[in-house]
């Protein structure tokens, strides 16, 4: 199958089926990662070298397995489609955010807080309507990059091995990439590798968001505001996305009981329920743009 058709097949499976309802392979991978961390980071004393070793043992065997299976004649194309499908999170993103939109529109703030609390790491118990909408919109823009477009990018670059390498690395960053006493040294490799793998996809996503929204404002916010954000990849994506939607994100957020005043992103009013939906629409439009580019690229190559 051509690259464009394989990507469309993987995306179609994600839209039709969503995440596996029983046991997602990433759940099993997470258990394996927990065992490795328990062995190499005893009492949170693992060094950077231990983190590198654990990362290699966690990621590389499955990447090589994906390469071997994708090389099999006759079924290699199916392995590629399934690998991409399992790496994508488009339907899951919509399924988690649509209940937040519905609760806000009904005026049920408590339910909206509970729903958004399932997909963000900040404390949501005291958020007002704007705070809930801000957390949800930020999640849509950032996870659109991480859970959809970076996976598509690495699949286009390196097929099944590329997307498996990316998705497992991204999972380890979510598990080990914390700047706390337990993971400061051990999780260094997982965080830096994820930053590296997301560097170019994040900027392509930021450009895509800008082209599909308020382009001039998005580019200005990207240039001026992204360097102030603590994440080198989330900054461009969220600044450009907020500018494209002409809304303001960032600001005060509470994580584990501690207040964090984050730089402002975008320009315009604070988000409301409709802006979460607009952010989702922007992600869908970006997906259409990427698939169109892949199709045109395949046609020109042919």
Supply the key terms.
302 residues, mainly alpha, two-stranded antiparallel sheet, 11 helices
Strand content: 5-15%
Shape: globular
Number of strands: 2
The pLDDT mean sits at: 94
| Adjacency order of strands in the biggest sheet | 1-2
Organism: Stutzerimonas kirkiae
Pathway: Cofactor biosynthesis; adenosylcobalamin biosynthesis
Protein name: Cobalamin biosynthesis protein CobD
Keywords: Cell membrane, Cobalamin biosynthesis, Membrane, Transmembrane, Transmembrane helix
Could you describe the 3D structure shown?
The chain has 302 residues and is mainly α. It has one domain. It is 72% helix and 6% strand. The protein has eleven helices and two strands; from the N terminus they run ααααααααααββα. It has helices spanning 3-17, 25-40, 48-70, 76-87, 90-106, 109-117, 129-176, 188-211, 215-225, 234-245, 273-301; strands spanning 248-255, 258-266. A two-stranded antiparallel ribbon has the order 1-2. Strand 1 and strand 2 form a beta hairpin. Helix 7 (129-176) crosses helix 11 (273-301). The longest helix is centred in the middle third of the chain and has 48 residues, at 129-176. It is globular. The mean pLDDT is 94.
Layout of secondary structure:
Blueprint: H1 3-17, H2 25-40, H3 48-70, H4 76-87, H5 90-106, H6 109-117, H7 129-176, H8 188-211, H9 215-225, H10 234-245, E1 248-255, E2 258-266, H11 273-301
Antiparallel strand pairs: 1-2
Helix pairs in contact: 1-4, 1-11, 2-3, 2-7, 3-7, 4-7, 5-6, 5-7, 5-11, 6-7, 7-8, 7-10, 7-11, 8-9, 8-10, 9-10
